[in-house]
Structure formats: structure tokens, C-alpha cells
Specification:
Elements lengths: L19 E3 L5 E4 L12 E4 L7 E11 L5 E7 L19 E5 L4 E4 L2 E4 L11 E9 L5 E7 L2 E2 L3 E3 L5 E7 L5 E9 L2
Antiparallel strand pairs: 1-2, 2-14, 3-13, 4-9, 4-14, 5-6, 5-13, 6-7, 7-8, 9-10, 10-11, 10-12
Length: about 180
Amino acid sequence: MADGDRGIVRWRRDHNAELLTVSDDGARVAWSRPSTGAHTPAWVPIESEARLFGGAFELEYVVEEMASGQIGVGFLLAWDIGPDWGFFGYLGSSPTGWAYDLSSGDVVCATRSIEGGLGKSADGHTGVVSLRLDLPTHAIGTATFAVDGRAARPIELSEGAVVIPAACLLRPTQAVRLTARTIAR
């Protein structure tokens, strides 16, 4: 999906490139390289190139490999100074970042579960998480996670919010594919 200055919904190749590999089409990211530093990072974050606003969008995160660990998929709000990843690169650690954790079935923001009991990966390896974004330019917006056809409560976003699709990986071999489409109003 390309749309003017909203960007293309594909993973950024330059974000944590020393550990992550992005597919040629930009749709898949995988933690494929070993850590070469003194220690392995707690989380490896990645954001997409897109800055979504002024419309309705549907994103699909296909978790192709969980490596029997936590993985966060979701979004951050864009700010003039850049997105706030919070601590250790975990997507749901800041008050302006929301993660769906497929291993626990929780929507997480500001390091706490804001809704639990949604679908989780049955085998700890794969799963699909949908995210519906309604981002009007001059009104309150919403973001709604869904798994297996069950939707979480909508998350209210500020008027004119700009959303960055993102993910955070906890273990080597984890992989996520991201697709998106604009929804006609």
C-alpha cells in the first residue's frame, strides 16, 4: 500500500539492521543474525516506513515464527521528536505504544495489560493479528485489535493521530509478515 506522504507499509530496513533481515518486498522481518555485542538485547524493535493518518486502514500481522517466546505487534504514535519506544525496545512499554502479545492474548500499553483473554497462538509458533485503524483528520480516532474474529475494545486515539505500524521481537528466529490496505469510507 502506497499513499502519498503516508509512506509504504513495509518494514524499515535500517531499523536494527545488525540483527534483523527484511525481505525484498519489505513485508517480512526476521531476527536472523546473532548479537555481536557483549549481551543480547532484551527486545529488538522495528517500525514500518508508514505514517498512517486521515483515513481507515486494516493491517494484518502474520506471526510466522514465535520461537516459543513473547512477540509484540501493533503500533506507536508519531511525534515531532520521533516515536516513544519506552524501555528496552518493548512496543507496549510507553503510553503511546500498543502491542498485542500473541503468547498471552493481551493488549499492552504503558507496560500493563489493558485487555486480556483474546486469542493466542495455539502452538507457540504462528498466528494472525488484525488491526483496524480509523484515523479521521479532525476527530477522535480508534485502533482495534482482533484475533480469530474476536475484536478487543477500541483504543481511543487523539484527534489527528499519526500511527506507525511496529513490532518487537524477543528471540532469534522470530518472524512477522505485515500487510495493509486502505478501507474506503
